[in-house]
Amino acid sequence: MPAFLLRCGGGGCEPTTVKAVGVQLQSLVLKATIRPECSVAALPVRWRYVKLTAVFRRTDARVRPALRLLPLPFCIALSLAAHAAEDSTIDWGLCPIEPAVPTFADAQAPIGDAEARGTQPTDIEGDSLDGVQGQTLNYNGNVALRRGDQFLGTDKLTYDQATNKYVAEGNVRYQDSGMRLVAERAEGDQNLDAHKIDNVKYQLISRRGNGGADRIEMKGAQGALYGSTYTTCPPDEPGWALHSQRIDVDTEAGFGTARNATVRVGKIPVLWVPYIKFPIDDRRRTGLLYPAIGSSGRNGFDWRQPIYLNLAPNYDMTLTPRLMTKRGLMLNSEFRYLRPTGRGTLEFGYLPSDDLVEREHDEEIAEVPIVENRREEDRAMVRFRAQENLTRRWRAIANLNWISDARYLEDNATSLNGLSNSSIGSDLGIYGNGRNWSAGIMADHEQVSDYTLPETSLTYDRLPRAFARWEQSYGRWFTAGVDTEAVRFEHPSHSPARPGGTRFDLKPFVSMPLEGDAWFVKPTLAWRYTSYRLDNEFATLTDLSPTRSLPIASVDAGLFFDRETSFGDEAYLHTLEPRLFYLNVPYRDQTGIPRFDTQTMTYSWGQLFRDNRFTGADRQADANQLTLALSSRLIRQSDGREKLSASIGQIRYFDDSRVTASACTTPGDISCPGTIERGKSSWIADASYAVNDRWTIDASYQYDPKIGQEDLISLRTRYLIGDSGVVNFGYRYRRDLLKQVDFSFLYPLTPSWSLVGRYYYSLYDDPLNDPQLLEAVAGVQWESCCVAVRLVARRYLRNRQGELNDAIQLEIELKGLGSAGPDTESRLRRAILGYHREDLYLVPPSEVSSGDDDEAISPDLPSPDSIP
Description:
The protein is mainly β. It folds into four domains: 4-283, Lipopolysaccharide (LPS) transport protein A like domain (lipopolysaccharide transport protein A fold); 284-458, no CATH class; 501-690, no CATH class; 712-868, no CATH class. It has a 32-stranded antiparallel beta sheet that branches. Strands 1, 2, 5, 6, 7, 8, 9, 10, 11, 12, 13, 14, 15 and 16 form a 14-stranded antiparallel beta sheet that branches. It is globular and about 110 Å long.
């Protein structure tokens, strides 16, 4: 129990506990006028004009101490390097649990945040309180001041009423929601707002940074740290540290200035900076970011130096000059803006007089017969992405891309698209949705990015496309709705051989979903009407305003059976889920209808339950077919995880399906390519088996009984090693298209040392393609709590001619400070699924694509890449 405990708030202070120690306290009257000042939210609130009146038995003297929680404007200055990296992406798994400055046992749990401190009362407690008129007031033994998230503790606090000076001695401790520190001594002059703290050690809570200073001196908003350090390493394992002889801090301007600063790895100085200015709060500042340095046989020495420009609170720009000794000087820029209703990014890249054009001129003439697809001397790229909320239900989305020539993506690593894409797309639209509806109007455009293809091979642009969908339930038994679309098609080449036209598509439907605990039945009846108005250049068509109208009927039904079973000591729930899907669509001759955006869907499990095997509205497949499918799962009852899941299905065609995507000289003839004869489709089987909690196996298989060949084989297995290691193996085969093996691993040798690798090889062999290496990666990495070093050798496919490129990359990362060298971590993350363990459970679509199941993306929604 403390000898005294005072509670101070906006209305004054009152004694909560008073106990006679030393000088007896006859009466105690406390009044406080508190004014919080907080120019930076992360800094502790200052206390001004605190009046304390105490009446003692020995005398009627009154004393007026001015107590407040010590100002600490240096708290963010200590973390000067912490703003250089986003700590949320850093792996601190090898760091000790115990922080550099442990939590104080006598500190309270934080209440509120820094902005709420002005409304919180202050509690002052200790073992004894004594004072002499006009001289000093002494707080002794376990002195603690608490307010909200702030705590200040010391063994002794002395206040001189005459000079308005204070001294805190012995075990000085401060803590708030952002940091903790300990010091030997603190003293100050309240009149001058000057303070000095000796021998400081600190811990930043959210950023994991820690360090110390020999001395800190402050006066108002100005401060200086002498002999300061900053690191994210444990104090007993200083992998790296930033040392500065002196740091000047201005909390009003939000800047710190370090002089004679040195970055040391271990005890070895690796970087010396005589003068550096840096931010000490979350306000953005114009300045240099960390460079990226690399080298390759094609580009030569490669240096990228980002320059950040803080133009306004809601928009900024990053300029990145890039020096490639074998190609020239390139400039990249990124402009970002943020509005209350939206955000956007504009990217630009420009490389004048690319030396690569002249160096590979003769080679390109031989390789690229299409003159329009050859490199331009001046290379450039523009990309604009934006999203704007127009109302509560409507938003505008833009994803606009342009490249100067078809080989730009091959020659320059950008975020536009990969080498495998034959074109880059742009789209701009307005989209809305409500409880029972969705609608939008948009336009899109394609540009060639594969120099082997002519512009006439591109898909049609939709300029514009308007769509709407409405669906409404009526009671428990019926659901009605309509899908509608209107599109104007223009070809990017503007070639007379690729004329355009306008299409209108309407599809009303009604369904009756019935279901019980162990069954469901959903009959659906739809009518599809499609009409066209074609350009006059369609000379081969006799009707420039063709129409198509037909009914679509389907029934989807399934059963659910389950039983309890066990294997060994483990209890499981075993399910059996048969499903039937019947589809009936009459035949309509559609050879008089051009094909603007329609393609045949890749045969997959999802295709078993669709009412059309074509994308777009230019083709509606005729059907009289029944899908038979069976799924089964084995679910562990202790935690709900699937031990085994397996599915098998097949379509039975009762009549020939004669509609084809491509033109045929004898329409409706079963001999036309793309038609389906009556009988049985290919079998589709999928299975997933968890051997244990670390080893999983997934497989997909398609077998065509008509020709006795496999259409698709896919095998994927993954084994987790320890807390961070992983081994992946995959085999993919699709008849007449690809045959690949993919092996990758992250193998930990010790908690710090690990090997990484990938071997990605194409086995496909035909007259036009030879087996070849797609990518090979081999590397070693060392990682501690705060330092990581990665050495990676890569050999990868450079262009569509099958040429390979070699690269050796070294990256040194000082966690929480930055890294030197190319970003090998992001490349390894793409190459090795599970390089970051969390990717196995939530993998971004941009990071991995199996390519096994080419599901159709709804044309009513923008692509995921178009959303910022």
